[in-house]
Structure formats: C-alpha cells, structure tokens
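Predict the assembly for these two chains.
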Amino acid sequence: MRVEALIKRRRNNLIFFAVLLAATLVSIIITEFEVTKAFTSIPRAIGWAVKSFYPNANSLEKIPKILVKLRETVLLSIASTTVAAIFAAFLALFGSKTTQINSFLAAVSRGIASIFRNIPVAAWALILLLSFGQSSLTGYFALFFATWGFLTRAFMETIDEVGSEGVEALKAVGASYFHIIFQAVIPSSLPQMISWVLFMVETNIRSSTLVGILTGTGIGFIFNLYYKSFQYNAASLVVVFIIISVLVIEYISNYVRRVIL
Amino acid sequence: MNFSETLKSLWVQSPGKRQGIAAKKYIIKRANKASIVMNITLISLAILTIYGFFTFEYKDVKILEVIAATAANFKTMLLEPRFNHFDLSKGLYQVGVTLGLAFLTTLIGGFIALFLGLLAAQNLSSLIVSNIIKGFVAFVRAVPTVLWVLIFAVAAGLGSVAAVIGMTFHTVGYLIKAYSESFEEVDAGVIEALKGSGANWWQIVFQAVIPSSATYLLSWTFMRFEINYMNAVAMGAAAGAGGIGYELFMDSSFYFDLREIGLITYFILAIAVMLEFISIKLKVKLRED
C-alpha cells in the first residue's frame, strides 16, 4: 500500500512538473520572451543605472515641481481611499453574513464588490479617461472604484470574523438593527477596518503612479515626462521621492496598527 | 485573495508578543492610547481628504455633465460590446499573452523567492541575514511595479522581457514574505531531529521544510499569479508589454472605441473571476488534504 501511495505521489509530481514546463514553453513563445536577452539585460540595466540613473545637481532644481505633483498623488490616494471606505462600509454591511438584511441583497452586494475588484485599476483608468479626460478626477475615480471593491470584500470578512461578537447578545435583549450595527459591529471591527484603509492608502500611492502615467496626472505624469525626454537624473529623483513617501506612510501605518490592533 | 493573510504581508509585529506580562492598568492605558490613535487617524484622513478635494486639478470638468456622459458611456460599453479592430481568435490570443506574462513572472519570482525565503525564515537562517532580506523587500515594495518595468525597459527595450523582469521584483518581495512564514511554521522538532541525526542544511530544506510546506507555497504562488495577471494587464497598457492591456490602451487612447473597450473589459473580468474561482477551489482542496 505504501509503495503504491509513493508511486502515485511521484506520478502526480511528474505530471505537475510536466504541466509547468509545458506552460512555460507556451508562455515563452506566445509572449515572444527572449530568454538570453532577459539574462543579458540585467547586468546592462545595473550598469546603466549606476552610470546615469541618479539625481544630480541639475535635477535638484526640479524638487519644488516634483513635490507639487507628489502632494497631488498622495492626496489623491488618501481621498479616494477614505471615500471608497465609506461606501465600502455600507456595501459590506449589506453583504456580510452577520449584518445582511436578506440573502438576495447580500448576493447582489457581493457581486458588485467582485466586479469592481476584479477589473484592474489600469482598466478603470482607461475606461474613465474617455469621459473625464486628463484631469485628476480620472485617477480619482479609477482608484475609487478599485478600492471600493477591495475594501468591501475586506470589510465583509472583518465583520464576519470579529464583528459578530455581542450581536447575539444584543439581539436577545431586543436591540434594533441600527443599535446592533452602531453598538456592536462597528466598534469591534473598526480597528481592523482602519488597518485595511491604511493598507489601501499605501497600495494606492503605488497604483496612482501607474494611473498617473496613463492619465497624465500627478507623480506618474512627471516621471513619464522626464523618462520620455531622457532626463534620467530628474526621473531618478522622482523615484527617490516616491520611495520616501511610501516608506513614511508604511512606517506611520505600521505604528498605528501596532497600537490599535 | 485571502485577506487576513494579505494584511500579514506587511510584516507587522503582533502586539500580543510584547504584551505577555501586561498588568491590568497597562491594558487600560493601552486601550486609551489605542482609541486616541484611532481617532487621530480618522480625523487626519478626513482632513487630508477634504484638503485634497480643494487642491485637485479639475481642468474645468463640469461634474454633472461628465457624470451624465460617463453613464451614457457605461451603457454603451456594457450593452453593446463588439469587436472592431480584432476578432475573437486575436482577442483570445492577446488574453493568452497577458496570462503568459503573468505566468513567467510568477515562475521566475517564485523560484528566486524560494531561496531568499529560506534565508529570510528565522528558524533556518540567522537574524542578520533575515533582517537584510526584510530590508531589501521593503525597498523593492516602495518602488511601484510600473517604474521597475520602465527602468528595465531602458536596457531591454519596451516589451515582454522588461515587463517580466520588472514585475518579478514585487512578486519576489511578496512571495519571500509568504514563503518564509510558511517555513517558520514547520515543526521545530522535525528540524532538530534531522540536525541531531547529522543532516546538513540542504538536506533539512529539501527533505523536511519544503515537502511539509509545499501546499501552502502552491496556494500562495497561485494567489500571486492572480495579482500578476492584473499587473500584466496594466503593463500592457502603460509599458508596451503587449497583450489585452495594450488593446485596451489603444482603444481608449487612439480609437476611442467604447464598444470594444466594453468587450475587452468583459474579457479581463471573466478571466479574473475564473482565476479567483480556481484559487478558492485550490485552497479548499489543499485544506482537505
């Protein structure tokens, strides 16, 4: 018996690796991925970065301009996340097993969340670009929709996980639906929800760089501008500022998480 | 995506560890501090949001008109999807390209992360090495994926090579974290027993650590594949990597073709939902085994 099990396991492993190999070959062919170029381009990229991808004295003059764009991007991420969080909280209350009004509404809100979450933020940006043009609002709504979908799902899981404490007790003493929501569900799931909001603010700063490149706004736009005009020193300075802002926000949110969770 | 696990990917030290001998008074103090910090966070977010709305470049967008136009656009996209510039076989091919980019990224990233994850796991490595790798991951994560791709595009040219290498960075960062935590959960007794019987590090890794965490590794890797699919769509649009994202970009920025955008969005959504479905099934199956 044991031998048979071993043989079966070995065969399964063999099938797994064969499928993996086949998928790799298909992927290499279909994406026109040049394996040798991939290997040679890594040292070339490092060499290029050392030679020309660092901030120099000239690029330092561009700091004020970069900071204006950075502020726009950071505020865009925060504003889209907080507003999306408010909408997500409502949708999550309808969708969560603990607080749903009926199962039909719950299924509908889960479906909405799933659709919004599974359309990539880049696709949202390109869809909205047609009506909003190259304004901050395009990026704002792109981030808003994707964040709304993500946070709804996250909040639903949070409510199901920790928000159900005390709900039964309150129901037993005859508390109303709104009492239960505001006295039990929201207080107990708020710390985790805040944690999720902070996580999305971080994620959205990175996403809004991408959205900025597509829609011509914020820090992504200014990076693309320097990058496309071969001003690599200035472009590297933009990267430095993005790194600093992401790390600072990560530090703050890690501190907040440590205290509240 | 598993949410409580994603949150863990931030490497936050859990407060419980530092609270072992907490006196009652300390707990009350902590609760106060927690509610103060929570209020400050909420108020700051609210203020920054309002301030943000005053500073955005609206560029004379007339909000009501635009919302009406957007609603009309959405209606066209959702109800009248149609091919114009390519057909079904080309569309499926382009989806295949996007999936291929995601697959290669996940494969290469997973391979690198397997080794670095072993070095980042505290039970298999030293504290210094583990911390160096964590620092490296924090740096990698701070640079957005699209910038990694564009930086590599200078050396490799815009295309699949730059896209895969660029996307590999975040993949490695994410998977190192996931893998090393799976490794840390391996029973310490097994490792001790193997050490005692004279097994070397490689033997411990390949005979005990990897086999016993293989199912977790697989489930995490597939989760990253889902994320990489989304990234590959984005890189097609923003960094010339080809695939369905590139078609979407062309329709949105050059042809202004709402009906085809609608169709492509359905394509992207269908694949993403399918991947999520597989991921959930996979997780259930792994849990049963």
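Chain B has eleven helices and no strands. The CA atoms of residues 90 and 106 of chain B lie 24 Å apart.
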